[in-house]
Amino acid sequence: MEKRVRSPNYPSMSLPDAVQRVAIIYKNQHTHGAPREVVVKSMGYNSLNGASASAISALVKYGLLEGRGDDIKVSDRAMRIMHPNSPEEKAEALREAARDPELFQEIGEKFPGRMPADEVLRNYLIRDGFAPAAVTGVIRAYRETNEFVEREAGAYDPALIAHSEESSVQQSQPIQPLRSPGAFAQGPVNTEVIDIKQRVIAIYTFEGGRAVEIRAFGDVDTEEALETAEILISLKRKEISRNAGKPSVSPEATNDGGQDV
Fold first, then answer.
1. Which of 231, 225, 172, 173 has its CA nearest to residue 199?
2. DSSP per-residue string spanning 176-212
3. Using alpha carbons only, what angle is made at residue 143 by residues 168 and 44, rounded to the nearest 5 degrees?
4. Is 173 helix (H, G, I), strand (E, B) or coil?
5. For residue 136, what are the contacts with CB-CB under 8 A and spacing of at least 6?
6. Hey, where are the domains in the chain?
7. In the beta sheet, which residues pair with residue 6?
8. Does 227 score more than 60 pLDDT?
């Protein structure tokens, strides 16, 4: 008898994307309950449709939204991730969220420890009855979720105490703020040492392990961090635009005294 094709009951987005979405919902409705139609509009959707319903479903699978009907709201787990009392509390909430989706639990039990290669995971899912067309999305969501948790919560994993202690020594080192030579050539250089304490403000992941991330260092609130990021992006765009109109400099021109050797 032909094997039944399993429905890919997994979150339609990765955990870092889900955390971003629930942060937007919290900004618009805090922890108050609201109907699904209001919740999807809080995320930026125009109406309740397939895409917006999948987004809500994903947040529920991660335990970031709770309730039903007219009382869907940001969960306590989401609050522990966005506004934790300690790094350890956030780390545990992230691990809980990553383990909650049923399919992710199944994969984690089948492949404990480090995540297997994509091809190994693909073969396992297809042999387990998943439609090949759905497997790519499953793998992407699972990999991005695991990488996010490892990056954000790995240092607070009780199973990795020795690694945590080593990491804490490395992270206690001060850093100097990054500075773009073109954008800030006329401005003063801030030489103040900034504590390495940091948190992720936003992250967007691409295929192939690429990502763009905004981090805040020190005691900077989210709104201030985003405003600063907007300014830096604007300055960087202007720098790129200016440089695009400049003629390229030959390697010979960079030699001592500008003379040919």
1. 225
2. PPP--TTTTTTSPP----B---EEEEEEEE-GGG-EE
3. 100
4. coil
5. 122
6. 15-160, 170-244
7. 130
8. yes
Residue 140: which pLDDT band, with cuts at 50, 70 and 90? very high
pTM exceeds cut of 0.85: no
Give the DSSP letter string of 72-92.
BEE-HHHHHHHS-SSHHHHHH
Beta strands at 65-66 and 73-74: parallel, antiparallel or unpaired: antiparallel
Q: With contact defined as beta carbons under 8 Å apart, do 97 and 64 qualify?
A: yes
**What tokens were used for 149?**
């948790």
DSSP 2: P
Judged by DSSP in three states, 14 sits in coil
DSSP class of residue 46 equals: S
| 134, 5 contact by CB (below 8 A) | no
25 in Cβ contact with 42 (< 8 Å): yes
pLDDT of residue 239: 75
The predicted model gives 169-197 an average pLDDT of: 43
Which parts of the chain are beta strand (E)? 65-66, 73-74, 198-205, 211-217
Residue linked to tokens 């994307």? 17
Q: Which two tokens stand for residue 17?
A: 């994307």
Least confident of 78-87, 90-99, 151-160, 236-245: 151-160
Mean pLDDT (whole number) for 14-26: 94
Query: What is the torsional sign of CA 96, 85, 30, 152?
Result: negative
Residue 48 near residue 90, CB atoms below 8 Å: no
Chain centroid offset of residue 34 CA: 26
